[in-house]
Amino acid sequence: MPLPPTDLPRQRLHARRISYDGWQRDDGLFDIEARLVDTKDRDFPLPSGLRVAGEPIHDISARVTIDRHCVVRAIETCSDRIPYPGGCDDVGPDYAKLVGANLLHGFRKVLHEVAGDVRGCTHLTELIAFLPTAAVQTFAGLQRDVEPHGKKPFQLDRCHALETSTETVRRYYPKWYRGAA
Predict the structure, then answer these.
(1) Helix (H) or strand (E) holding 14
(2) pLDDT of residue 145
(3) Among 63-67, 113-117, 122-126, 154-158, which range has the highest average pLDDT?
(4) How do 72-81 and 58-66 pair as beta strands?
(5) How many CA atoms lie within 13 Å of 86's alpha carbon, on the beta-carbon side?
(6) Of 121, 132, 107, 113, which Cα lies nearest the Cα of 78?
(7) Would you list the domain boundaries of the chain?
(8) pTM recorded for the entire structure
């Protein structure tokens, strides 16, 4: 069900578009590509120059290569449009410090240590912070191939609805249900 319509007239001031694409590579690794684009609906003056309505304020991307265990093997970042050229874009290579981190085990903590606050680009860090859920969705269609048969499905105990004591698990994954009888 979509959000209900609003009762009051309003004018949009800002649009943010975020996308994540998951790819399986021929070498057995996986790429998650993420992109964030911010635009304004009216001309927007910046100290670095005027951005015409609809022209991106931010257009930044990241490609993270992971293995089947969600360990980061490589990371690349790109800042095609930024508000402060020569400032915003010089921190991108620092994200390579995330190589070796695991997207499913403490990744956001490591990300904050590497690129939180003034150590990174706020927008790039925010974009990269959601890679764990994008990776889970990338692997969802490969579940039978990624995990050996007979083990608990990957998605269980990773969110509220799929916690193994819930009615959802009892209904859809009865073998793994651990709630009341």
Answers:
(1) strand 14-24
(2) 43
(3) 63-67
(4) antiparallel
(5) 1
(6) 121
(7) 14-146, 147-181
(8) 0.85
